[in-house]
Design a protein that fits this description.
Structural class of chain B: mainly beta
Number of strands of chain A: 11
Oligomer: heterodimer
Number of strands of chain B: 11
Order of helices and strands of chain B: EEEEEEEEEEE
Distance between the termini of chain A: 37 Å
Distance between the termini of chain B: 40 Å
Radius of gyration of chain B: 14 Å
Helix content of chain B: under 10%
Largest interface: A-B, 25 and 23 residues
Radius of gyration of chain A: 13 Å
Largest sheet of chain A: 7 strands, mixed
Strand content of chain B: over 45%
Amino acid sequence: GAVVSQHPSRVICKSGTSVKIECRSLDFQATTMFWYRQFPKQSLMLMATSNEGSKATYEQGVEKDKFLINHASLTLSTLTVTSAHPEDSSFYICSATDRINTGELFFGEGSRLTVL
Amino acid sequence: QQQVKQSPQSLIVQKGGISIINCAYENTAFDYFPWYQQFPGKGPALLIAIRPDVSEKKEGRFTISFNKSAKQFSLHIMDSQPGDSATYFCAASISAGGTSYGKLTFGQGTILTVHP
């Protein structure tokens, strides 16, 4: 089946630094990808919709200058957490829709960010 | 109107028993209702999904029951096994195109524990 790959799976960084997380659709083209954030024992909260070749659409309350999203190709979206702080520590998960073939949504394995 | 309410928050079942998780939604525009299974430290994996033109869908031990008039849907896990112990999320989305395509609204999650 379709696969969505995230990298890195775990990252630890110092407060004030920036971290980039990649989301790739491996065997299908994804014009739209989604970024979610999940705190421990909580549900997934949609952060933004990433559209290939255009600006991302952010959900209410999500700082677009802090969470930079770039969707430069049909198979890659990146989320950059800028000037990370401990409260940004979370599990970040991307998803992509195989809109052309099945219409199904596939999730990546997630990226655990820990900001010291 | 975008909320999906899930219950119970946690569920303990004996091996071989039936696990039942319920969800209710408000937005009548939702037309795709997936269930996801998530293990600790992993991204959610699609378990089974239903569209509102059918009232029930079965795949192996997993069954979705859908009640369009009540705006409710549920997941039944028959012959529950210890390996089924995980967090389960219901979700809903609008799949008919437009800006909401593939944008999932998740329930709060249910932690299922199956005792051997």
